[in-house]
Amino acid sequence: MKLKGAWIVLFLLALCATGSAQFYFGKNKIQYSAFDWKVLSTKHFRVYFYDREREIAEIAAAAAEGSYDFLSDKFNHDIPRKVPLIIYSAPTFFAQTNVTPSLLPENVAGFTEFYKGRMVIPFNGSVGDFRRVVRHELVHSFMYDKILANISEHRKMNYYGPPLWFTEGLAELWSSEWSAEAEMILADMVLSGNIRDIDELEDLSGTFFMYKYGESFCRFVVEHYGEDKIEMLFENWWKAKGFTSLFKMTVGKSLEDVSKEWVYDLKKRMFPKLEGSDLPTRVTEPLHEKAFAVKPVALPITYRGVDDWIVYKANKLGYSGIYMRSPSLKEEVTLVKGERSPAFESLHLLQARISASPGGRIVFVSKRYERDVLYVYDVTSGEICATHDFPQLYQLSSPSWSPDGNTIAFAGATGDGIYDIYAYSLIDTTLRRLTNDIYLDAEPIIASDGSIVFSSDRGSFGYEGYMNLFRLALPDSTITPLTYGRFNDRSPQYVGANLLFSSDRSGASNVYLIDIDGRVFRLTDFATGAFDPVVSRDKLVFSAFEDFGFGIFMQPYDSTTFQLTAATPPTFSAWNPEHLSGKLEEGVIAYKNEFSIDIAQSAIAYDAVYGSMGGFQTVFSDMLGNQLYYLLISNSATTKDDLLKSFSVGITYI
Questions:
Q1: 428: exposed, middle or buried (C-beta count within 10 Å: 0-12, 13-18, 19+)?
Q2: For 166, which of 126, 162, 446, 552 could close a Cys bridge (C-beta 3.0–4.6 Å)?
């Protein structure tokens, strides 16, 4: 009887609990690495890190302390405890975290958990992006602590959370400037007819589009009604019963009315873009029907009687793969099916380019278990012909063939998460590390003279997250800048002696070219962006963004249409990231288990056969989520005399 009662109570408690994760068939969270955690204590934070990411932890601590005063002023609030900040040196380690049981997609840049107020952030290689994400997550910590303090101070019980678009939009607003990427997304939504009011975002909830939608709306409120209106929302939180009424009370207009003003303002700002710019589908030839396709590369061989094949990555039915298509045949060939086996666990759809050799070999990166590996696929045989694994490297990105097909250059990161340029020789199987510093080096290509051109944040504006182009001369390893400015120059690709690349220097990302004399020309002018340019025969091929997705497009590669643009002569000015200053550091200690309650709940029930019963369950875990205790206590006594002997206790340790 006692056992039966315990199970009934357990069932009732389970109904009361809220599930935080969904697990799909064949998907498990696996811990490959064991970390020796330490704790760096500062004035406002406890930073959890492991030895090989010590420098990253110090950068995170400096960024967090630097953001604290700024956000404390915005929220008119101080968090009354030290905020736990858990750092992982790479996304592959971040995916193994036990702070949340949920599986984390590789595009998650960090999260804030509210049971213990933990901020959990991976380093993605860019110091600028890392600092921005630290502030973004700290906005969440301040927001929820401020709301709880506000309703507690006024002795109210009407807690309601802000809508997700506001939560993420405000975090974006107070952590970064308006970016070319954000402008691209909003321009596309307006020009493609997908713009909608702010309260009609159900189908975009949790997506990157929603982040930028929310940020745009918050910016509109600040610019037209004053930033104090945003700040006063949190002071008035206790007065309202929901966010809609809170907004009207604070701003003086309804959320619906301000949303309509915002949409109208966006239309006035975006529609004039079409006077000088175009949409990709209006003036180019699509390689395929609507599909989410990126990272095109020309395949320089004759296959099935034609020589104009384009290889690219695409997402179809939720799975990423590598495909090729010929504009002449209008035929698509599947080369690699990704995300269906451990060998191709992730093809890093948006992060890593692919490359084709003159002999028809495709080199690409895929995650296999904990690490990335290089795969070489032979188009003629239709098989993987080589696999290259580098034990010291955890992350690889954007491999590129040398013109003679004997060397592969790529960006790689060791366990510290910092990306450098590497060159792997297929002749003697040696791996050379060509750069070795804190900067993010990406997308290398090998020139005919053996030098390497790559994109990097090592320039004057790299600390803010901007990427410019550089040339690495060998064997002396001299690095010289090729471009310079507060913008992002990415995806370099040689066409003869000229250098193609994509850049957001004029707003939306478009295709540019540097000729042998160093002059810069603009080749495309799209309101919604073009990326990853290559030339196939007499056509310029690129990926472009339109109507909520990416596709592959083509247009004539005609030098008579190139537009000469002004460019600042490149200069070189290195920077060093800010580390935690000595006066703020309170010391580093080894991590010890710090258990606290995650959840506690109780239930009382009555059964027609077994009578009344009640129970209580609670969960304790340590700060890193590595150890959990589940405690269940139930009692099925029907009389006072049975009370003490009717307890059932269950303890589970994970």
A1: exposed
A2: 162
